[in-house]
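Note to self: keep these together.
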Amino acid sequence: MVQSTDSLPARVAESTPKSRRKAPAGSSASKTGTRPFARFEWMIAGRYLRARRREAFISVIAGFSFIGIMLGVATLIIVMAVMNGFRAQLIDKILGLNGHLIVQPIDAPLSDYAGLADRIGAVDGVVSVVPLVEGQALASGSATSSGVIARGVRDQDLPKIRGVANNIKLGTLDNFAEAGGVAIGTRLAASLGLSVGDSLTLVSPRGNVTPLGVTPRIKGYPVVAIFEIGMSEYDSSFVFMPFVEAQAYFNLDDEASAIEIYLQHPDAVDSLRPAIEQAADRQILLTDWQQRNSTFFSALQVERNVMFVILSLIILIAALNIISGLTMLVKEKGHAIAILRTMGATRGSIMRIFFIIGSSIGTIGTLAGFILGVLISLNIETIRSWIASLTATDVFSPELYFLSQLPADMNPAETIAVIVMALILSFLATIYPAWRAARLDPVEALRYE
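Structure:
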């Protein structure tokens, strides 16, 4: 990390102002010294940063410090971007299929669902209201069977569920009620071996009551549409069917199981709750999307915070390497520091020289890490696909991570916080070695020279 300083005194003398070199020992110029971060301080710091063969070990430590800071900053940016993207995509998929607020009955069934939906839909801030019939059933196809959630939706309400209406891969939702068929997810269709036009058999334990007991209800429906939301759990477990057909299948006489409310701003659930309860004009249980998924999103937030703390240790370790590298450099350059002091360099100048050296490593490493992190974050899905094809493995399994693609969403505030943290740690790491260099006694350093 250093070069010979044999010609350094002459270089310093040349770069030192003449007024300072000619000033008497007791003059004000000798007391004030040069201005902070003067040209000769940058020159000496630059020479010390260029390694010579016999100081190669110090240069290796500096190199590890640079790589550590670069990788720490890049890793933090990438991980935070992926976790932000993961959370944003999950919220988008969840809210694309489920309402922001769910209305469920308390004292009586929702036989007045039509009027209730109209009253709630008139509330300012409510975009759409969807009554639905929901129940569990066993879906059977040509290949196997699987448990599903069957939802009955009115024909005019189905386009309001953008997660389904905007992601139809096969078939169509036109005249959905008249067709009397069902819409299923791509993963459910693949697992059951079904395509558009095939028959899906639903088996419900809540069937007809006979003298011999309750018999399961079994009925086949043609598949009229196949959708792909992009969230494996939804694509493999939801079946949409006409509202009236679902009422008949689940033995609900002109009733709805629940009413889903879609808001203009999903985060405004608390502010709109009183107005919606007042518009309902009956006893209801109102649950928002945050309550229904609180455990899941809380776990994501805890994981995100823990990952930030753990990955920050990489930057801290790199900063500690800066301390060790500068400390060894101070010992190596004790003779040169003593010469600079006898030539008139102040303790502040010596401290600033070594501060420049350490902070340069931290600043350049942080900048390189920022560039690397941004490049990887912007191309994370391409990199994932390349690694998956290279290793012939599924790097981001949808069955484990819910999503079919690896998302990344860089938050400018978080990225700036990572950069500032890395710079602060790098600057703090230079203070002690620079202070030790400034405290070096020239007499002791040159005693045996």
